[in-house]
């Protein structure tokens, strides 16, 4: 279910095949997460983070998909964070989040703390 | 000067409560996810959870009845809570009456806005054990803020009707109120208004909780952040007495995991007794009893563990509210059959 990553509340999880963001949807930051561990004590590893773009996206067609599959050692899940257009340029805000997560989690190796 | 009473929060010995040795004492059900209010302290209003449960906004009758059928023989408490307003469930009253018939005890947590003569009477006649009105205020101005979307006059009318019907029917139901101790709320005035003025059997004063990684709630809203437990010394009490079930039948480890990131099993395919004694709960209990609860990522991130008490808890509320009910209805101690097993 929902996952707070570095203070931001993402929703999900969804399988990659089901994530389609249309042009009239809110643009979103997507995170690719590998869930491992026992069902009662899950661990979440951030494999990748990216932006849907303002024209939408079919995640299953993403050029890095094969890399995600190769890195996955559990269940591959997608969590999304909508970026409302009225709160500022989505592309700029998405890039700031991607940069922050890249530094903090060093995907594909970084574990996400359930402390949020 | 009156002597200050110290509230005890820890027991002499930790472990499964004797009443939960075989079966959980309490099953907290996310019976409904939609709500007709937008409360500033609500974890569901401040999270993505309702969006994630759009496919299962209400617990199905089949799942609920399976839980009730398994819980009835142990007279376990079903806490009808979590997610939204329980009385929005299209079959809500009928299902609660069913659960009483098969032996469950019921604690209904509601904002009280949807009660009418018919459903109030049905719940009281069935002997729903505890009807908890989440009031959070004692005046219309505060109520409009902390119970946004609801009407103060309607609350008062529905509460008064419930109390009057209880007396008329001599129902065993306890009628209590609850309030979250948050900024802008005078919790003592709320207690005085409802317990002395409106004849509530008891008030549950709740700590303001944030549910940490599940929500965007801010601790700054708390009016009483003093902890109950030292989490390095005391295991969390919840895993030794209760479990949580969502509308899909998934069992979560506790009420902190409202996002259902843990999966202890599913009541559709497993017995609750097996889940309660299964590897998931064993794992949590062993870690906590070894004072290594914080090794578990979920528990390490739980900001609410310190606000859980082994003694100042729901069972204390049940006993206190029952004494008040008996006094008000002029009953002798355990003068009616339904309350005889409760203390």
Record keyword descriptors for this entry.
heterodimer, A: 116 residues, alpha+beta, six-stranded antiparallel beta sheet, two-stranded antiparallel sheet, 2 helices, 8 strands, globular, B: 343 residues, alpha/beta, nine-stranded mixed beta sheet, 11 helices, 9 strands, 31% helix, 13% strand
Distance between the termini of chain A: 13 Å
Q: What is the CA-based Rg of chain B, rounded? A: 19 Å
Major sheet of chain B: order of its strands? 6-5-4-3-2-1-7-8-9
Please report which band the strand proportion of chain A falls in: under 5%, 5-15%, 15-25%, 25-35%, 35-45% or over 45%: 35-45%
The helix-and-strand class of chain A reads alpha+beta
In total, how many beta strands of chain A?
8
Q: Provide a count of the helices of chain B.
A: 11
Assembly form of the protein: heterodimer
Can you tell me the overall shape of chain A? Answer: globular
Radius of gyration of chain A: 13 Å
Helix content of chain A: 10-25%
**Biggest sheet statistics of chain B:** 9 strands, mixed
Q: How helical, in percent, are the residues of chain B?
A: 25-40%
- The run of helices and strands of chain A is EEEEEEHEHE
- Please give the domain count of chain A: 1
Low-confidence region ranges of chain A: none
Tell me the number of helical segments of chain A per DSSP (H or I, 4 or more residues long): 2
User: Main interface pair?
Assistant: A-B, 18 and 27 residues
Mind summarizing the main beta sheet of chain A? 6 strands, antiparallel
């Amino acid at each position: 279910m929902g996952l707070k990553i570095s203070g931001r509340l993402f929703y999900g999880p969804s399988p990659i095949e089901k994530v389609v963001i249309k042009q009239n949807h809110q643009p979103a930051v997507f995170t690719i997460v590998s869930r491992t561990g026992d069902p009662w004590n899950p661990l979440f590893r951030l494999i990748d983070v990216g932006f849907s773009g303002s024209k939408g996206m079919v995640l299953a067609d993403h050029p890095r998909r094969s890399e995600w599959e190769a890195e996955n050692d559990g269940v591959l899940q997608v969590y999304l964070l909508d970026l409302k257009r009225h709160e500022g340029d989505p592309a700029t805000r998405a890039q700031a989040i991607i940069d922050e997560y890249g530094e903090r989690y060093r995907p594909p190796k970084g574990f996400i703390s359930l402390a949020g | 000067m009156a002597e200050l009473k110290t509230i005890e929060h820890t027991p002499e010995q930790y472990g499964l409560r004797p009443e939960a040795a075989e079966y959980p004492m309490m099953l907290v059900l996310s019976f409904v996810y939609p709500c007709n209010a937008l409360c500033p302290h609500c974890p569901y209003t401040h999270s993505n959870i309702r969006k994630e449960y759009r496919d299962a906004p209400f617990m199905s009758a089949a799942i609920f009845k399976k839980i009730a059928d398994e819980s009835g023989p142990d007279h376990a408490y079903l806490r009808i809570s979590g997610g939204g307003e329980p009385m929005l469930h299209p079959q809500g009253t009928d299902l609660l009456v069913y659960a009483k018939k098969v032996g469950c005890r019921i604690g209904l947590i509601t904002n009280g806005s949807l009660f009418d003569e018919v459903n109030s009477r049905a719940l009281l006649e069935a002997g729903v054990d505890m009807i908890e009105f989440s009031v959070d205020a004692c005046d219309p101005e505060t109520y409009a803020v902390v119970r946004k979307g609801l009407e103060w006059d309607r609350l008062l009318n529905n509460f008064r009707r419930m109390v009057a019907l209880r007396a008329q029917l001599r129902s065993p139901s306890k009628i209590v109120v609850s309030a979250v101790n948050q900024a802008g709320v005078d919790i003592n005035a709320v207690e005085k208004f409802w317990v002395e003025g409106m004849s509530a059997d008891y008030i549950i004063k709740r700590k303001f909780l944030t549910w940490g990684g599940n929500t965007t709630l801010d601790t700054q809203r708390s009016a009483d952040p003093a902890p109950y437990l030292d989490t390095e010394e005391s295991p969390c009490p919840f895993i030794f007495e209760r479990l949580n079930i969502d509308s899909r039948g998934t069992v979560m480890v506790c009420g902190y995991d409202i996002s259902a990131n843990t999966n202890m099993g599913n009541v559709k395919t497993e017995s609750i007794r097996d889940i309660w004694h299964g590897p998931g709960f064993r794992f949590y209990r062993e870690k906590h009893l070894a004072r290594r609860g914080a090794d578990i990522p979920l528990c390490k991130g739980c900001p609410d563990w310190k606000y859980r008490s082994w003694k100042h808890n729901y069972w204390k509320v049940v006993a206190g509210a029952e004494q008040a009910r008996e006094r008000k209805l002029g009953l002798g101690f355990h003068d009616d059959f339904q309350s005889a097993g409760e203390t």
